[in-house]
């Protein structure tokens, strides 16, 4: 049972409308200036992700790392190193090699295809 948000194109009034079913979803009258000109406001969940949301989801490259961090070969693996450090685990030799290679400008295979 969806609740849609509507905004009146005439007076700017915004209201939420509860619908019993998607089929019956019908544009309501404006409560402020009936009937008004209501238009559905696209759900806030559909808005594009902000940069901070992306970082929340995929992890931050680390404090002080700018947006170019991913493109700077010297930054490659720094975040991973920090992560292992935080966990108190030593980085696997394989990961270390990959990072070293990447820093030399040799990107690991999966990244090359990007
Ligand atoms: Zn209105």
Beta-strand percentage? Answer: 5-15%
H/E series: EEEHHHH
Biggest sheet features: 3 strands, antiparallel
Radius of gyration from the CA trace? 25 Å
How many distinct domains? 2
Helix percentage: 25-40%
**What is the terminal-to-terminal distance?**
41 Å
The low-confidence runs, each spanning 5 or more residues with pLDDT under 50, are none
Category from helices, strands and their pairing: alpha+beta
Spatial strand arrangement across the major sheet: 2-1-3
The hetero compounds bound to this protein are:
zinc ion
Total of helices: 4
Name the average pLDDT.
74
Q: How many DSSP-defined strands? A: 3
What gross morphology would you assign? rod-shaped
Q: What can be said about this structure in brief?
A:
This protein is α+β, with helices and mostly antiparallel strands and 114 residues long. Helices cover 29% and strands 13% of the residues.
Describe what this molecule looks like in 3D.
This protein has 114 residues and is α+β, with helices and mostly antiparallel strands. It has helices spanning 51-58, 78-87, 93-103, 109-112, and strands at residues 3-8, 14-18, 38-41. It has 2 domains: 3-42; 51-103, no CATH class. It is built from 4 helices and 3 strands; from the N terminus they run E-E-E-H-H-H-H. It has a 3-stranded antiparallel beta sheet, with no helix packed on it. The mean pLDDT is 74. Bound molecules: zinc ion (ZN). Zinc ion binds next to loops.
């Amino acid at each position: 049972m969806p609740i849609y948000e509507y905004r009146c194109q005439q007076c700017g009034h915004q209201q939420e409308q509860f619908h019993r079913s998607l089929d019956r979803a019908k544009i309501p009258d404006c409560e402020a200036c009936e009937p008004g000109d209501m238009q559905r406001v696209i759900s806030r969940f559909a808005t594009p992700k902000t940069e901070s949301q992306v970082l929340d989801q995929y992890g931050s490259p680390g404090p002080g790392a700018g947006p170019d961090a991913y493109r700077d070969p010297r930054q490659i693996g720094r975040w991973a190193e920090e992560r292992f450090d935080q966990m108190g685990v030593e980085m696997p030799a394989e990961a270390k090699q990959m990072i070293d290679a990447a820093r030399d400008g040799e990107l690991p295979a999966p990244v090359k295809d990007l």
